[in-house]
Write a structure and sequence with these properties.
Layout lengths: L8 E10 L2 E11 L4 E6 L5 H8 L6 E6 L2 E2 L5 H6 L2 E4 L11 H8 L9 H7 L1 H5 L10 H13 L5 E5 L7 H17 L2 E4 L3 H7 E8 L2 E7 H6 L1 H8 L14 H4 L16
Parallel strand pairs: 3-8, 3-9, 6-7, 7-8
Antiparallel strand pairs: 1-2, 1-4, 4-5, 9-10
Helix pairs in contact: 3-6, 6-7
The chain binds adenosine-5'-triphosphate and magnesium ion.
Length: about 270
Amino acid sequence: MSTSPAPLLTVRDLRVVIGDSHILHGVDLDVAARGTTALLGRNGSGKTTTVRGILGLVPRTGSVLLGGEETVRLATHSLVRRGIGYAPEDRGVFATLTVAENLRLAERPGAGQPAYDLVHELFPELGQRAGQAAGTLSGGQQQMVAIARTLLNGNRLIIADEPTKGLAPKVVTEVAQVLERAAEAVPVLLVEQNLAVVRRLARHCVVLADGRTAHRGPAAELLADADAARRLLGVGRAGHDGAGPAPAGASAGPAAHPATRTEEAEV
Ligand SMILES: Nc1ncnc2c1ncn2[C@@H]1O[C@H](COP(=O)(O)OP(=O)(O)OP(=O)(O)O)[C@@H](O)[C@H]1O
Ligand SMILES: [Mg+2]
């Protein structure tokens, strides 16, 4: 759209080869300068590898423009210094360290005063649990720590890889609320398989299939198109009345292409 600001992140023809495995064969995606962009696709389609490629955690070729600057040849630490915050798929909290220590470790020299005010506003519970070992937190609380770390340093972009995975519906809602607030401050690239969360948060979406971009467009449009959702995501129903559930036939896809998770709860 001519009125949209330029994308914050522009990825073109991203390819990743690890050993003998050709994992990404040409991923194209734009992360909007505002709000949340969802990165979708079935299990094994290459979402995490795409994120790791953007961050320079795996060898990659192609083009990754951050605010117009080519970054594909930069090392991870340079990308982090340029303001990309990452909440990885496994959350990556240090289990034996306290909440406060996990946050302190995430402070980045030269990034200005760490934004503890914002973190404590969004996550009051983390303040109450500052002295608790992170490994004893619930999954949702650990996810809060992972997201809080990305907000400390005034980042330009937050990448969150399946932040709601494995969480109870009520906690999914809490994490979605926090991400919604975070995305008001910083654009988010959200890897997500819970379509109710996508519906709530994302304006734009990118769908991967077999290591390639299979679809890009408005998230609401895809979720409203049952045929496209079934073809691209393996879900049976993605209309306005909820994210699923997929009918038995649709959810029992071939083993190599398991269906997308489709938690039903509204979030
Ligand atoms: N280091 C690696 N070496 C070899 N193959 C890999 C490596 N990392 C990922 N793969 C393979 O690449 C494919 C894409 O994996 P990736 O983790 O990016 O998928 P994903 O879309 O994030 O899946 P999920 O939804 O299960 O998290 C998978 O087939 C995976 O087995
Ligand atoms: Mg993944």
